[in-house]
């Protein structure tokens, strides 16, 4: 079925507005047929291309004793070694700025993106012009599954910087033919202006982080506005944080805005990042396997995990000419299923979304804890605001888990102790022994980007102990 690689898409094509699918044949194909006729041929072409043009992969695979022609099945593909973020960073340190994996000439570059570098040296992404067109096609196709149509106005409320999320939403919107409203975020006073513009223009689709959407709603309510009545959002889709996949957070967003909350997102290295993306039925993120091939593997054994089990995500580009990521270890923690979705698409799904990353999980007194588990409890218990913090401390040799949570503005202060006991009880029932600290509304810092809600102070304690 693969006619050519890399695929070239008709940029003038738009489905009928009443069509549920952008590409019905691909999206509803029998999974085994899709694997044999689409995914495997694309994968084999991608491997051959990368081996011939990328020193990073030719050296890595030669060292492992593997050639592209050895890969005759998806099972064979599991012999390919993983690629890690540190390998990419090291390669770019030795071969600046893009590393030895660019695969195209500089004249063919269409975009330079990158990571923020907050946890180390920034990673530079050189994206080819042809790849930008394919990224736009993929995002448009997935946004169509969310229910976005040409008559929509898409408000993009996230940073326009090296951050990929905003640009993916923008190029997808433009390819789909909807109106893009690239408002951005991060400028002083931007949130107040966003509220004014939302009320005036009435955009119908919102993109940003879950925490920022709730912050906007909080600020709007303080102005006497009702986001469900004074705004006009029917679809709100998100990336950057796991919140949109957490049932209680999804419910809060939908009740606040009166629109549907759609989860999407993988990792910056894997643009088009929406290839983990829900459809309008919101039954968990589909893995759009014919664009980016996703595996779920055991974090310890590194072997594949079966349907219904938890694992870490590994991603592979199937259409990338510029900087392909092949068996990229992302470390997203999720559970997957092949159970049917009401939309009729036959991709595997992440029914609980991405609820953590291998490097986000923390261990307290021998228990593995994901921040999303705590968020889910806070959102379920009525009477709390939208902000909280998780603080991990160590007293002598014992870890202590502290949850700071703002009570809602309409809560009688006399009921705060009762609310505190209720939250502690609900957390304990989930196996989380915590100390709950109630704080007044508006106390905790807000953000327009990814909320940093986990503060681990155990390293400070160990340093102080070392210094005596």
Secondary-structure content class: alpha/beta
The radius of gyration is 23 Å
CATH superfamily label of the largest domain: ANL, N-terminal domain
CATH class of the largest domain: Alpha Beta
Spans where pLDDT lies below 50 across 5 or more residues: 461-468
Structure write-up:
By secondary structure, the chain is an alpha/beta fold. The chain is 33% helix and 21% strand. It has 14 helices and 20 strands. Helix 7 links the parallel strand 3 and strand 4. Helix 2 packs across helix 3, helix 6 packs across helix 7 and helix 11 packs across helix 12. It is globular and about 70 Å long.
Give a quick set of tags describing it:
468 residues; alpha/beta; GMP Synthetase, Chain A, domain 3; 2 domains; four-stranded antiparallel β-sheet; 20 strands
List the helices and strands and how they pair.
Layout: H1 24-27, H2 31-53, H3 55-64, H4 74-77, H5 85-94, E1 109-114, E2 124-128, H6 129-146, E3 153-156, H7 164-176, E4 179-181, H8 190-201, E5 205-208, H9 210-222, H10 227-230, E6 235-238, H11 247-257, E7 260-263, E8 276-277, E9 285-287, E10 292-297, E11 310-317, E12 328-335, E13 349-350, E14 356-357, E15 362-364, E16 367-369, H12 371-380, E17 384-395, E18 398-407, H13 416-429, E19 435-439, E20 454-456, H14 458-467
Parallel strand pairs: 3-4, 3-5, 5-6, 6-7, 17-20, 18-19
Antiparallel strand pairs: 1-2, 8-9, 9-13, 10-11, 11-12, 12-14, 15-16, 17-18
Helix pairs in contact: 2-3, 6-7, 9-11, 11-12
